[in-house]
Amino acid sequence: MAQLFQNFIGGAWADGSSGKVIKSANPANREDIIGEFPASTKDDASRAIVAANGARKNWAGTSSLARGQFLIKAAAHLQSKSEDYAQAITRECGKSIIESRGEVGRAIALLQYYGVEGMNPVGSVVPSVNPNILLYTNRVPLGVVALVTPWNFPLAIPIWKMAPALVYGNTIVLKPASATPHLGALIARMWEAVDLPKGVFNLVTGSGGEVGNELITNPGVNAISFTGSSKVGHGIAIESARRNIRYQLEMGGKNPVIVLPDADLEQAAEITVSGAMKYSGQKCTATSRAIVVGGILEDFTSMVVDRVNKLKLGPGSDPASIVVPVIDEASRQNVVSAVKRGQEDGGIVLTGGGVPSGNGFDKGTFVQPAVLSKVRPDAFIACEEIFGPVLTIIPARDADEAIEIANSVPYGLSAGIFTRNLNSSLDFANRIEAGIVKVNGETAGVEPQVPFGGMKASSSGSREQGKAAIEFFTETKTIYVDRSRT
Ligand code: NDP
After folding, report:
1. Does the pTM exceed 0.90?
2. Mean pLDDT over each residue of the chain, to the nearest integer
3. Residue ranges lining ligand 1, Cβ < 6 Å
4. According to the model, what pLDDT value does residue 461 have?
5. Could you give the C-alpha distances from 476 to 141, 166, 209, in angstroms and in order?
């Protein structure tokens, strides 16, 4: 019998009111059921919003230093249970255990960073034209913030939203992805373990259509921070604009690397493959296009294919696995059909794109990592996010054409260039339409103390993480105090 989990509302564990459940399964072995979680209703979501509103005044009135201490304690809690959390991530979203440990480490760093942030100034004193006026700015919380999060970083993404949300004085309702509700429950346990005041953090599991929709439309929510698909993100933008509430969207990417003829080709091939294939390309910052300039095309391509063919495909619980199962069957079908379509559009499949069998592969949603060469820049597979282990190699005449191709898609999250030339690097950094720019580095892999986010269709523009997070999670007040008659 699978373990039955509950929602966490107002500091107490509660059953969902529908009595129905969603089951979470291990992508490496779909028979391994992690647990059953409430398929909550809009009433459950609404109760969580009421609880978050009830806790709002006291939490906003708590000093930010004291709020920060809860985050520091949560970081210590996570540290003490880090291996349990890492194993849980691998089991629920399929990620390699090495990368899951990295994700836990990142969540700890985020909690520590924003814990300390509670001691930092949030406003400034500004000279007034009137010497009797004390003129200063302050930042105040937004109120109740809904966090709607995806399955691919089931710990780090909720934490990088909630750590700043909490330290700046907001209360929250989290709806995790239906594929990874267990990590949502483990996050709730973390806050319970550090005695976060009741109602400050609330968890409601259930579908996007029911729970997510209530969080977006309920007037008790003051802001929404979302990571996921462009389609859902656009719906949130429209509804938020209608209600004039603040929204933050992190959506997809179609992240390019440009390889110039003077690059260290071994390094370029190694990093490109790592960016494209680790975690089976299921990162919004994963590399999906290698735009290769001039006569190095054949050499670079064969270096990439050699490396991809050596990658171990297997369950994330095996530390040697680099390519792991994709999240579910729909995702696998999406990868297989995208590769077929890439071929129909004139691309050459050099390796992968099939479904492996035997050797335990039949139990999970594995797909062989694919490399396609000579792909047209406007082909579907070169423009649409596939969210799987698929790399397209696109030839370009020169650096100018390569940048044009890189910028030709609607997305603009992360982009890289491989070159030894300083001018080419800086020219690329200036002209590329991407929120994250790497020179001789992987498009995936970012540090938590700096802003994260994309341009164009990848994001709503406001940045997450680092100092930038305060812009979303607070409002500025400008205060004039005339002391002439006091
Ligand atoms: P979704 O956008 O469908 O899901 C993200 C979150 O939004 C989940 O919690 C989901 O709930 C919720 N949601 C779904 N529909 C609604 C709705 N109508 N109202 C409110 N919330 C909703 O993304 P998926 O996880 O299904 O992934 C689909 C694609 O999105 C991927 O293939 C990839 O292209 C992209 N993606 C991008 C990510 C990124 O980091 N930028 C991360 C993950 C995905 P539920 O799980 O219950 O459906």
Report:
1. yes
2. 97
3. 148-152, 175, 177-179, 207-209, 212-213, 216, 227-229, 232, 235, 250-252, 284, 385, 387
4. 85
5. 9, 17, 33
